[in-house]
Amino acid sequence: MSKTDWRIGVAGLGTVGGGLLEFLLERPGFSPTGGQAIVTGISARTRARPRPFDISNIPWFDDPVALARSPENDIFVELIGGFEGPAKDAVEAALLAGKPVVTANKALLAHHGAELARLAEAKGVPLLFEAAVMGGVPAVKIMREAMVGDDILSVAGILNGTCNYILTEMEATGRAFADVLADAQRLGYAEADPTTDVGGFDAAHKITLLAALAFGCAPNFAATEVEGIDQIDLMDIRLAKDLGYRVKLVASAERSEDGVLVRVHPSLAPMAHPLAQAGGALNALFIEGQRIGRIFVQGPGAGARPTAAAVAADIADVMTRAVRPVFQKPASELKPFTPVDPSKSMGRAYLRFMVKDEPGVIAAVSETLAEAGVSIESFLQKPVENADGVPIVLTTHAVAESVLMAAIERIANLSSVLDRPRLLRIARI
Amino acid sequence: MSKTDWRIGVAGLGTVGGGLLEFLLERPGFSPTGGQAIVTGISARTRARPRPFDISNIPWFDDPVALARSPENDIFVELIGGFEGPAKDAVEAALLAGKPVVTANKALLAHHGAELARLAEAKGVPLLFEAAVMGGVPAVKIMREAMVGDDILSVAGILNGTCNYILTEMEATGRAFADVLADAQRLGYAEADPTTDVGGFDAAHKITLLAALAFGCAPNFAATEVEGIDQIDLMDIRLAKDLGYRVKLVASAERSEDGVLVRVHPSLAPMAHPLAQAGGALNALFIEGQRIGRIFVQGPGAGARPTAAAVAADIADVMTRAVRPVFQKPASELKPFTPVDPSKSMGRAYLRFMVKDEPGVIAAVSETLAEAGVSIESFLQKPVENADGVPIVLTTHAVAESVLMAAIERIANLSSVLDRPRLLRIARI
């Protein structure tokens, strides 16, 4: 085993970058190969800012690209974030300089993963991103390394801790989305601009990367369906519960003969299912392989310490000098991502209609569904306080998305239906 | 990336070896580094035996040691089993020849891991054993690689699928241990000689290895406390359920200032806990790290295909030429394993006493416990059909094991107590 020391450049000293610096300064000898990890350069937006560790002796770079290019470090760690701008420029510069890169930047790789993988592989250096997905849970390592002898059929899970926290709180406290979000922002669980999280985009970046690892396709964020939790009504959380389900933001990727379906939707999971049981800021993921069967992993999906530990594990992997393809296959062999037409996708659904409390409404709704070819699995009508009208809630048997959408249109046009019908998918898990 | 082909020697063609051969012959190009995996030698007890794959063109070795030494293969895969004899001889021979070794042999490593790790590291070759623990679930990789930047505090889980299947069936069908075991043997879920599984030894081998990975101690099977499920009475499964628990064979390793406590016991897990929810032949594990927090993994712990996929993943790791310590630290730095005196260990317990149905019994039992310093958490007396006497069941608050044992002795000597008290620990999870 070589006992080389490794010089590390770290760009970005936010939550994860700060956690990493703290770790590297406290434990430079963590390497499995016996050498030291020495921080030889840092870059962040602001130099003079109170930090719980001393950076006065570490060379400072105003420009992360200059840090990435500097011959004074052997590994470049990108923790700036953002899919364009300095993060992308710095990662490219490091790879062009023939330097291994470790990043936690899911947005960057979801948008530019294939091109960066080509660059890394042309230079023969690793580009690792364990911390980009599920924080401290090694989902990337499991999919890239442990399932190398398998054909992955699907992955599905909870990949955004902020959304999971908000949904868990809404159910537990009976408060509305906006109210719980404001609290989460005060507590630091949600960003000042929460769009990336609550809009589903963060989970979509992550499932885009997992799909590339699972199916050997180039990451293609544009082909990922994204729906967030910002439209989730407390009423649906309660009614779903009455039907034995819990509402979760589920990200999933499945392959079929027609291609790959990658999506993020608020979805219903049966109450006893491990995904329904993963509460608070937990992340959880099912990986289904043809040989291995179903593996389930769960753990803290965010936070300075778990995420920094994942970055450290990637640095350790670089130290072993192992080089693998960035995604499942070498970048030159990644298949183009062929999205399945979602309208052909089959699935079960939860529908809620607010209706006038008058005779014949149930008949009208159920006849319309029958005519449209939607088969009802369960049906619930229940008065709700402080609501206009009465909710009719039902779950369907598996139905093609296009048929479902057509049925919803018809029902929306019934005179007794007061509001836009609400659709939540039942997770295929 | 080098596109070297790798020549693989496989000793042992049982369930896992057969699964591996089938995989390698079907998919020799699975390597992440682009080369082919070519089976250049095999060895097993019987050559002429019907197999679902063709071995007629593969060089045959009657002696696995000769296969291990043969210059015709680059990687030696040991799937013979057993902690002495040909498995050990062959692994040693391969390492002495400077050849990477992949094995699924938990018994061998639990007994001789430190010495084999020293040999492998002296020769600078990997000795990998992912398939030894949890079959297709990459517990070893997670602990060795993903948690390299963390301090692991404890691991606990269900590591033997046969025991978990038997306990699940006992609860579901209300049949006795011997009855369910006989069925499991007929179905091929349990061996003809089931001692290794139902005696807890297989789980003990596995938790011994996980403890070495977690705490940087030399594996020390002799220091692992082992209790199997062969004495589990259906009555306790039912009474535990009445108290909100499920009986599981839990393997755990914890460190404290005094040392390391590694044990396998039938234990009670709260019904809603993920370990209680892992039914049938599933394996499940919690890993608690100081930085990462609690990670949970679950999946199929055995079976030809999942286990062979784990062996294939190890072969792929060898192909990347990464070399890490076999356990958490280099073999020369592994700490001696200092077992905690279990009598000092604190924990909660479930106790059952069969008593005569007469006045004053509850008072006698509870007074004796109080005098011994055992504090009762819950108490249940319930008539049971077809039993001699009436069971008194209770759970205790945390108590030192030595205090508990002394209390049990006292109660066993009460005239109204008919039988040896039954103790099950409540899992610290």
Summarize the structure in words:
- Two copies of one chain form a homodimer.
- Chain A is an alpha/beta fold.
- The first copy, chain A, has three domains: 6-132, Rossmann fold (3-Layer(aba) Sandwich), CATH 3.40.50; 139-300 and 335-342, Dihydrodipicolinate Reductase, domain 2 (2-Layer Sandwich), CATH 3.30.360; 343-426, ACT domain (Alpha-Beta Plaits), CATH 3.30.70.260.
- Helices cover 35% and strands 23% of the residues of chain A.
- Chain A contains 14 helices and 17 strands.
- Chain A has helices spanning 15-26, 64-69, 86-96, 106-123, 139-146, 161-173, 177-187, 195-198, 201-215, 234-242, 274-277, 304-319, 361-372, 401-412, and strands at residues 6-11, 37-43, 75-78, 101-103, 127-128, 152-158, 225-226, 245-256, 259-270, 282-289, 293-300, 346-347, 349-355, 376-381, 390-396, 399-400, 422-426.
- In chain A, strands 6, 7, 8, 9, 10, 11, 13, 14, 15 and 17 form a ten-stranded mixed beta sheet that branches.
- In chain A, strand 8 (245-256) and strand 9 form a beta hairpin.
- In chain A, helix 3 runs parallel beside helix 4.
- The longest helix of chain A has 18 residues, at 106-123.
- The mean pLDDT of chain A is 94.
- At the A-B interface, helix 5, strand 11 and helix 12 of A face helix 5, strand 11 and helix 12 of B.
- Strand 11 (293-300) of chain A pairs antiparallel with strand 11 of chain B.
Topology:
2 copies of one chain form a homodimer.
Chain A: E1 6-11, H1 15-26, E2 37-43, H2 64-69, E3 75-78, H3 86-96, E4 101-103, H4 106-123, E5 127-128, H5 139-146, E6 152-158, H6 161-173, H7 177-187, H8 195-198, H9 201-215, E7 225-226, H10 234-242, E8 245-256, E9 259-270, H11 274-277, E10 282-289, E11 293-300, H12 304-319, E12 346-347, E13 349-355, H13 361-372, E14 376-381, E15 390-396, E16 399-400, H14 401-412, E17 422-426
Parallel strand pairs in A: 1-2, 1-3, 3-4, 4-5, 7-9, 9-17
Antiparallel strand pairs in A: 6-8, 6-10, 8-9, 10-11, 12-16, 13-15, 13-17, 14-15
